């Protein structure tokens, strides 16, 4: 074989190797593992429970309503791929330290405590969220508040009023390590709210859960 033929063969082999590298590189790149997905573990706390009924108006007990709303919120979150930790799933008595231990021990990266407010003035009805830890909780609480657009029972075409977020030395808020908020969703002392919450369809409770979900979704979307 002449020198020219050998050069042609070597050149052909070199081109073949280069082409093989170009063709296999994308496949290898595609198999490279990406970053681990961000954690989305929410600790949902149904306020009160057991020997602590919370606000009571006739047959309506705050502890039952918070548990109902918490269960609905759990379903919404899990259907969207979130991991949900519940501080209680039944009518159990829990202190703030126990609730915080459940949230912290299960690696929650956000905590939402559900409550219903009450007043001696039956005309009052608004939403308000509270934070404990200035650095960790305030922005999270504001996000939950901003997303809450529950229809007012007095006028379904308008949103329920919202009071400004406020710092509150709640044991649960202070003892949890993750961003946390306590949401006073509606006033159980308001007769219009009582009528809606007593409805067997559970529409009001579902709407409350949807609005809390919207706030959590907005928070995680911004991370």
Automatic annotation (TrEMBL):
Keyword Hydrolase belongs to the record: yes
Keyword Signal: yes
Catalytic activity from the UniProt record: Hydrolyzes the link between N-acetylmuramoyl residues and L-amino acid residues in certain cell-wall glycopeptides
Molecular function via GO: N-acetylmuramoyl-L-alanine amidase activity
Record keywords, A-Z: Hydrolase, Signal
One matching Pfam family: Amidase_3
GO cellular component labels: outer membrane-bounded periplasmic space
EC number: 3.5.1.28
InterPro entries assigned to the protein according to its UniProt record, in alphabetical order: MurNAc-LAA_cat (IPR002508), N-acetylmuramoyl_amidase_3 (IPR050695)
CDD domains reported in the protein's UniProt record: MurNAc-LAA
Source taxon at top rank: Bacteria
Domain (MurNAc-LAA) ranges: 100-217
GO biological process: peptidoglycan catabolic process
Matches recorded under SUPFAM superfamilies: Zn-dependent exopeptidases (SSF53187)
Signal peptide span: 1-29
UniProt name for this protein: N-acetylmuramoyl-L-alanine amidase
Biological source species: Nitrolancea hollandica Lb
């Amino acid at each position: 074989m002449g020198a020219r033929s050998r050069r042609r063969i070597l050149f052909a082999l070199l081109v073949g190797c280069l082409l093989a590298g170009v063709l296999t590189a994308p496949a290898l790149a595609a198999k490279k593992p990406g970053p681990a997905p961000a954690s989305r573990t929410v600790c949902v706390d149904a306020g009160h429970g057991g020997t602590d009924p919370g606000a009571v108006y006739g047959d309506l007990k705050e502890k039952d309503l918070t548990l109902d709303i918490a269960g609905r919120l759990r379903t919404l979150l899990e259907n969207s791929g979130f991991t949900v930790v519940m501080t209680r799933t039944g009518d159990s008595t829990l202190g703030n330290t126990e609730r915080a231990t459940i949230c912290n021990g299960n690696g929650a990266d956000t905590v939402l405590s559900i409550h219903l407010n009450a007043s001696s003035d039956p005309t009052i009805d608004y939403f308000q969220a509270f934070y404990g830890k200035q650095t960790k909780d305030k922005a999270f609480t504001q996000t939950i508040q901003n997303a809450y657009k529950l229809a007012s029972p007095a006028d379904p075409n308008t949103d329920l009023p919202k009071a400004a977020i406020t710092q509150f030395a709640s044991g649960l808020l202070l003892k949890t390590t993750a961003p946390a908020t306590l949401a006073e969703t509606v006033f159980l002392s308001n007769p219009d709210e009582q009528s809606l919450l007593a409805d067997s369809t559970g529409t009001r409770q579902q709407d409350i859960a949807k609005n809390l979900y919207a706030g959590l979704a907005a928070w995680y979307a911004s991370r």
